[in-house]
Amino acid sequence: MPKQKNPLRRSEGFTLIEVLVVVLILGMIVIALTGGVHFAGKAWQTQEGELNRQGDVGAVQTAVRDILVSARAFDADGETLKCVGQLPKGLNRGGDYDLELHDVDGRLVLSWQPHFAGPSAETLPTDTELLKGVASLQFEYFLDGTWQTESKDKGKPPLLVRMTVVLNSGQPWPPLTIAPMIDSPPGTQN
Q: Mean pLDDT, the chain, as a whole number?
């Protein structure tokens, strides 16, 4: 006798409810993964932006360090540093320049023009913006064993120059203390 199929017996495969439960679970997993990927992407962007800003501060500090290492003939106060020195190597300009670091409307600006020891035609300085978002800029000079806010004796350079910057963004500006060249290089005049 042939076997009869039992209508109550379960057939091979999945029921509609089982498929819907699996699709629901997979949907929840995809939503969770999408949120995680979005969070990771946002964290990546934030970190990348922070590294770029830190790189900007590092580049500015390197440029200022290059300028002040070659500096002499200081005529400076707490807010403006004027000196004679060389431009950073990245600008690929040789010779001596009259340099001025100062704050202009919340920007750290380097003004420079060629330095002439004798009479010369007046040239307008070139302004180069080094950093935006400066809340305050302060210079101090180590002279005669103490930190002072002025260095006006062009024949006696400070032993150290300290530059303190506070940025509007609250981003930290690492302390910058530089020892300028004490003696003029051979063959140069102030």
A: 81
